[in-house]
Structures are given as C-alpha cells and as structure tokens.
Amino acid sequence: MSRARVVVLISGTGSNLAALLEAAATPHSPFEVVGVVSDREASGLEHARARAIPTTVVRLSEHPDRAAWDRSLERAVTAHAPQLVVLAGFMKLIGPPLLAAHGGRIINTHPALLPSFPGAHGVRDALAHGVKVTGASVIEVDAGVDTGRILAQVAVDVRDDDTEDTLHQRIKDAEQPLLVDVVRRLSSAS
Ligand code: GRF
Fold first, then answer.
1. Quick one: CA torsion of 60, 5, 104, 121, rounded to 10 degrees?
2. Whose CA is nearest to atom 9 of ligand 1?
3. Which of 5, 73, 110, 133 has the most CB atoms around it within 10 Å of its CB?
4. What pTM, to 2 d.p., does this model score?
C-alpha cells in the first residue's frame, strides 16, 4: 500500500507532531511523515530527529524580506513532494508561494472553536471572554487568518479555575486525536 506523504510544519513543542508520528508508526497507517519544517529551532523538532525524519529550519531572520522567506518555505516543503501539508502549531502565516503550490492540501489545527477566537491567542482570548466551552478546530488553510473550511472540531469545557496553561493542555489532549483522525481520513482519500 502506498502511504500519503505528509509534511508537518511546527514552531513549538510539537505535541501534535508527536501524535502524528506515533500514528504514522502504527501498522497499516495510511500516511507517513516525510519531513518536518520549522521557522525556528523549535524543541518539537526533536520528535522528528528521534525517528530520523528530515528536519529543515527556515528562519525569517536569514532572509532579506518576508517574500524571500515565503519562497524558501515553499521550496523546503515541496522538496518532500507531499500530498498533505499539516500546520501543527506553526506560528507564522503562510504566504502565496506555499498556497499556490499546495493549496487545498494544507490543513491547520487551531486551539479554539472557529470562527470564534481566531489568531495567535485562541486559548487566552476564549478564557478572557468567559466562554464555558471552547475546543479545537482542524481547518483547510486559505489566504485568511483561520478562515478556511472547517474539517473537524472537538469541544472542551472551561473550568472556573483554568489558567491559559491548564486549559491549553486539555485542549491539546483533545486536539491531538482530532488532528490524527483528520490526517488519516484525508490520507485514505488521497
Ligand atoms: C496547538 O494547540 C495548536 O493548535 C496551536 O499551538 C499549539 C501547538 O502545540 N496553534 P504543539 O507545538 O503541537 O505542542
């Protein structure tokens, strides 16, 4: 069986990446992670290195401008010839080159129930608003900020004593299986 080639983009601790790697290592997984790309020396890269999966760091600071970085990012991803690109805690907006090359095959996971609380602080914003239920969303990436088609969501109750950290941890616990499920589903369909 040929497995779908998946490239994962991260900026942080990579717990979602770790869940994808674990799922990819199970027998009969419909996908494999063929490369991990980051915009910084993210601690999450270790999950990939531990499994000898190629990693690439594309730093904005090493490029003359954002457009040049956008082009490098696209090249780093396309080099792995992916069928699916997964933004798993990638904290930069992706630019036109990546969208042009892989549009319709890029997904993102977001720690809130979109369309509520888009942007970089979904957990903090939900907590500040006082919602009683929040969660995670896996969406298709388009040119907007967290505006793409919603593929799957999971709800997480907010507790009275939650901090941003405790709430985000419970969201991540629910988000990881959700993301794995969507990647499996899209991979089986590709
Ligand atoms: C996830 O909650 C993701 O939705 C958000 O940032 C977090 C990344 O976590 N954008 P990790 O790096 O996968 O642990």
1. -50
2. 89
3. 110
4. 0.97
